Amino acid sequence: QVQLVESGGGLVQAGDSLRLSCAASGRSFSMYGMGWFRQAPGKEREFVAQITWNDGILDYADSVKGRFTISRDSAKNTVYLQMNSLKPEDTAVYYCAAGQTWALRIGRGEYWGQGTQVSVSS
């Protein structure tokens, strides 16, 4: 059974940092991209970042470039999202997903986690 389990969300103040983790299990993801998405209340889910599992190619949404960093630890089968200089507009439920890289870019992940809440106060 494939599982993606996110952790690390919480309530922080503007300017603070958080690191989200996504632990993947149940199959090999070596030919997949691993991505982070977010959905704020009343808004559509949006792409945040992705990394290819085998060669570490990175891709970011313009809104988070320079503030967020995606990375992976192959030994732990875990993908991270380091979020710095957080803003109130970063408040959302953050989801981890796995899938083909082109599909992730348009929000079509094959596997999804349950999400973790990130709230940033001003």
**How many strand elements?**
11
Instruction: Look at the helices and sheets and give the structural class.
Output: mainly beta
Could you give the order of the helices and strands? EEEEEEEEEHEE
Mean of residue pLDDT? 95
Helix content: under 10%
End-to-end distance: 40 Å
Instruction: State the shape.
Output: globular
Q: Characterize the main sheet.
A: 7 strands, mixed
Portion of residues in beta strands equals over 45%
Provide the low-confidence segments as ranges: none
User: Please, how many helices?
Assistant: 1
Gyration radius, in Å: 13 Å
Descriptive account of the structure:
4% of the residues lie in helices and 51% in strands. The chain has 122 residues and is mainly beta. The strands form two sheets. Strands 2, 4, 5, 6, 9, 10 and 11 form a seven-stranded mixed β-sheet that branches. A hairpin with a 4-residue loop joins strand 7 and strand 8. The mean pLDDT is 95.
Tags for this model:
single chain; 122 residues; mainly beta; four-stranded antiparallel β-sheet; 51% strand
Gist of the model:
This protein has 122 residues and is mostly beta strands. Helix content is 4%, strand content 51%. The longest helix has 5 residues, at 101-105.
